[in-house]
Amino acid sequence: MNLSGKRVLLGISGGIAAYKTPHLVRALLKQGAEVRVVMTAAAQRFVTPYTLEVLSRRPVYTDLFAPSEEFPVVHVGLAQWAEVVVLAPATAHLLARLANGLADDLLTTLMLGCTAPVLAAPSMEEHMLEHPLTQEHLQRLAGLGYQWIEAEAGELASGAVGRGRMAEPEAIAAQVEQHFAAGLDLAGMKVLVTAGPTLEDLDPVRFIGNRSSGKMGYALAARAHRRGARVWLVSGPTALTPPAGVELVAVRSTLQMQAAVEAVYPQVDAAILAAAVADYRPAQVAPQKLKRGTGNLVVELVENPDISAGLGRAKQAHQLLIGFAMETEDGLARAREKLQRKNCDLVVLNDLREEGAGFAVDTNIVTLVDPRGGAQRLPKMSKHQVADHILDWVVGHRPAAR
Ligand code: PMT
Fold first, then answer.
1. Where are the beta strands (DSSP E) in 166-246?
2. Is 100 a catalytic residue?
3. Which residues of the chain have pLDDT under 70?
4. Which CATH class is domain 190-401?
5. 86-109 residue pLDDT tens
C-alpha cells in the first residue's frame, strides 16, 4: 500500500486511451490512494462517469457549475485537495489549453489554481505528438514543472504503429508511487537560485545585456520546489513564467541582484547561482536618450561586484554554495580557478561552443567540478534533468549527509 492515504486527482481528457482509466483507478486504489476523478466533456464519450464513480466509490466531477457536497466551490476545492494530479490521457487539445492558460471547463480551471505536482501521460497519434505546436506546449508545461509519463511505441487507434500510445495503468500507478517515494528528499531545506541575465542601463532606452533566457535557473527552482525545498528565485528579466510555489524576487541590474541575494542568503542551506551576471556597468546612466550626431560614443564601464565571491566569503559551515562557469575555452581549468576563488562547494561548467549547451536551449551539457579534483561530465540532457543531477549532489553533500 505505497500510496496509503495519498490524495490523487485523476484528470481524464478525451482520447481513446480513456478506456484504460477504470484500470488506472483500480490500480491507484489498490495501492491505498484516495482518488477523485475529473473528466472533460470529450472524455465522457470514451468512458462513462458512472463506471468511474462505481470504481472510485466517489462522485465524478464533470461540471464547473454543478453543486458538490464535498466542495463548496468545486474547482477551488479540488485544486486544494490534490496532493498530486495525474492527467491520463493528456490529449493534444488538453495540453494546448493548459499551456495557454485557458480555463474553459472544470479540469482546466482547477489546473490554473492548483500548485500540486502534475504527472501527465500524453496520448495521441505520433504525428500529433511530433507537431511543433504540441512540442512547444510540452516544453512550456515542462517549464512549469510538469513531469511526463512517456508515451509508448505500439499500435495506435488508427491502426498505425508508432509513438503516442498512453503508458499502461500499472506503469502510471508505479510512477505515482515513485513520485511519493523519491519526491521529497529536499523537504526542510531552503534553497536560493539565481537565474537569467542582469541588464545594465545606458540611458532610458538602451542597456547592456546577455543571452541568458533563465531556463537553467528556472528549471533548478522548479525541481527544488518539487523535491520539497522552500525556494527563493532571484531572477533578472526573462520571458518565463515563474514555477508555482517558488518565491520570486525580480531584479534588473547586478547591484539589484546582489542586494536581493544578500538579503536571502543568511537563511538558506544552499545557493545555486545560474544567473549570467554582468561584470561591468556604465559609469553613468544618461537621464535622457543618448543622441547621435557627435561622432563615436565612448562609454566608460565600471566593474560590478562579484556576487558569488561575496557569498563565498560569508558562507557558514552548514551552507552549500554552487556556482556555474560559462566558458568558451580552457573550461576545466577556469572552472577549477572559479571554484577556489569564489569558495564554492561545486562548480557546474558549461561550454558555449558545444551544441545543445548553454544559453536559451532546453538542454545542457555540464561537468560537475568539485574541490577534491573530481570532474563528472554528464551527457546532453534537458535542463530539468541537469537540475536534478545538481540537486542529487546537494542531497548527498548537505551537512546531515556529510
Ligand atoms: O539562462 P539560460 O539561457 O538557460 O542559460 C544558462 C546559463 C548558460 C546562463 C547557465 O548555465 C550558466 O552558465 N550561468 C552562469 C553564467 C555566468 O555568468 O558564468 P560566469 O562564468 O561568468 O560566472 C561564474 C559564476 O559567478 C556564476 O555562478 C555567476 O552567476 C557568478 N557571478 C558572475 C559574475 C558576477 N559579477 N557575479 C556572480 O555572482
1. 190-195, 200-201, 207-208, 230-235
2. no
3. 1, 182-183, 400-402
4. alpha beta
5. 999 999 999 999 999 999 999 999
Q: Is 312 in the pocket of ligand 1 (CB under 6 A)?
A: no
Per domain, the residue ranges of the chain are 7-182, 190-401
pLDDT of residue 146: 86
> Could you check whether 7-182 and 190-401 share the same CATH topology?
yes
Please tell me whether the overall predicted TM-score, pTM, comes out greater than 0.70 for this model: no
Evaluate: CB of 326 within 6 angstroms of ligand 1: yes
For 221-244, write each residue's pLDDT tens digit: 999 988 889 999 999 999 998 887
Determine the atom of ligand 1 nearest the C-alpha atom of 254.
Answer: 36
Task: Give the separation between CA 288 and CA 282, rounded to whole angstroms.
Answer: 14
Which residue, among 113, 123, 100, 99, has the nearest Cα to 12 in the 3D structure? 123
SS3 11: strand
The topology (CATH level 3) of 7-182 is Rossmann fold (3.40.50)
User: How many angstroms separate the alpha carbon of residue 283 from the centre of ligand 1?
Assistant: 22
